[in-house]
Amino acid sequence: MSKSTKTAAGAWLLAAVYYFYQYSLRSAPAVMMPQLSEAFGLSALGVASLVGLFYYGYSPFSLVAGAAMDRFGARRIIPIGAAAVGLGALLFGLGSPDAASVGRFLQGAGGVFALVGAVYIATTHFPASRAATLIGATQMFGMSGGSAGQFVVGPLISRGLSWNRFWIGMGLGGLVISVVLYLLLPKDEQADRPRLGLKGVASAFGTVFRNPQSILCGVIAGLLFIPTTIFDMIWGVRYLQEAHGFDYAAAGVRSSLVPLGWIIGCPLLGFLSDRLGRRKPVIIGGAAVLLACVAWVLYGKTGVLPPYIVGVVMGIASGAAMLPYTVIKEANPPQFSGTATGVVNFLNFTFSA
């Protein structure tokens, strides 16, 4: 492995760890909905709306993050995002609904720089034949954080850890991650990056948005993400308690198995797609299996299938949602890699928002 490849691998790994961190904050509210409802004086629907502000920051700032990567490179931009997430977590832990709303929005706005940054590094510094595998591995880190945000945080909360101490601790952790990213991310090669002014940025967005394949990638990714980002990570625990009669602990474990399946499915389906040299068959197959799993969760009988198999398979199948991130890069000019990633992420999470 050459020195430049090792440097790129290290940069990608740092961004992926940051993605793990922000994803754990994204999913953590699912296991503390009653505590948040009591602390903020809001109904369950009110808390869900507050938590959902994450996606109102995440979606539009995908465009900002993508253009910023193309303009300034990863080292200048990614640490700023991590600092925003840390500040957002601190605000969320203050106990004020207004501060929590701003904090949750900041968590989304800053969190998007993790995924866009990691995908930008993967698609600009590694061969195209490894792109889907690396992007899948990136989402593996994210869903590891998503699983930890439920599987690890749930028991901590049930054993007495106060919700606000969790958020304040994670906020301080985010500020530390920001400093580490700034110190350790390598400097970007100026010659390899177009010097885009406002006119160039607008031209890049125009090129990507006018490509029908870009819109299709965003729509497909968004529809494949919704069963995990919304149904499981926000409503999963509560749904399993009220619709199927599970207690809090059992519902938390079952819900956390969906992101655990992502940990397997994202790199696996990415690797499969790279080996086949095709994207559509893997996307279609993943979507079909995901549909079957969601239908069973909604309408199937408890106890017919092994207790954890549906959640794991659902997560594995929904890993196909990351393949459009590879397709959009392949369908647009290589100099607009960051912008294309930002666009697909924007379209994707507009559905979630």
How many DSSP E strands?
Answer: 0
Radius of gyration: 19 Å
Morphology call: globular
Q: Terminal Cα separation, in Å?
A: 41 Å
* Low-confidence sequence ranges: none
Portion in helices: over 70%
Summarize model confidence as the mean pLDDT: 86
Largest sheet report: none
H-E order: HHHHHHHHHHHHHHHHH
Number of helices: 17
Strand % is: under 5%
Provide the structure class.
mainly alpha
Give the arrangement of secondary structure elements.
Blueprint: H1 3-27, H2 33-40, H3 44-51, H4 53-72, H5 74-92, H6 97-125, H7 131-151, H8 153-158, H9 163-184, H10 198-209, H11 212-232, H12 236-244, H13 248-276, H14 280-299, H15 309-318, H16 323-330, H17 337-352
Helix pairs in contact: 1-5, 1-6, 1-7, 1-9, 2-3, 4-5, 4-6, 4-17, 5-6, 5-9, 6-7, 6-17, 7-13, 11-16, 11-17, 12-13, 13-15, 14-15, 16-17
Write a concise synopsis of the structure shown:
The protein is mainly alpha-helical and 353 residues long.
Commentary on this structure:
This protein is 80% helix and 0% strand. The protein contains 17 helices and no strands. Helix 4 packs antiparallel against helix 5 (74-92), helix 5 (74-92) runs antiparallel to helix 9 (163-184) and helix 6 packs antiparallel against helix 17. The protein is globular. The chain has helices spanning 3-27, 33-40, 44-51, 53-72, 74-92, 97-125, 131-151, 153-158, 163-184, 198-209, 212-232, 236-244, 248-276, 280-299, 309-318, 323-330, 337-352. With 353 residues, the chain is mainly alpha-helical. The chain starts with a helix and ends with a helix.
